[in-house]
Amino acid sequence: MNHPYKSELLVNLKAYYHDRGWRSITYFDAKRDEILFVLPETDDVTKVLNNLYTVLGTLPEIDHPKERVVISFCYENGDSYCSRLINPNKQDEINLALIGYRPERRIRPEELQELQ
User: Fold this and answer.
1) Of residues 50, 46, 42, 52, the one with CA closest to residue 22
2) Alpha helix stretches (DSSP H) within 17-64
3) Is-contact 95 83, C-beta < 8 A?
4) For 1-116, where are the E strands, in sequence order?
5) Chain-centre distance of CA 99, in angstroms?
6) Would you tell me how many other CB atoms lie within 10 Å of the CB of residue 107?
7) What is the pTM of this model?
8) What are the phi and psi torsion angles at 96 (to 5°)?
9) Distance between CA atoms of 71 and 74, rounded to whole angstroms?
10) Lowest mean pLDDT among 15-19, 54-58, 69-73, 84-88
11) For residue 83, what are the β-bridge partners?
């Protein structure tokens, strides 16, 4: 297992969100370190994102060295993409210090369709 922390975090998050009908996509090998949840348009992405730290606080402890991971949410068409960086690395801290924010990315609908 190349990413034991992220893999276990994904399992825990999927168990927490299991009854919501969300799809999950991982980008562990694309150097994005991302777990993306794709929500139906009936769910409020902003509310889900704002509740993420509360959700993380309820999950079981992970017995692996911490890894950088971006947890993100969007709709099926890629709209309303938003994310939180968990366990930032030194480069993330340097970027934040230099530019004052973490660069955002946009999801193209094609990315979501290719991985269904």
Assistant:
1) 42
2) 45-50, 52-58
3) no
4) 23-27, 34-39, 69-75, 82-86
5) 22
6) 19
7) 0.82
8) -65, -40
9) 11
10) 84-88
11) 72
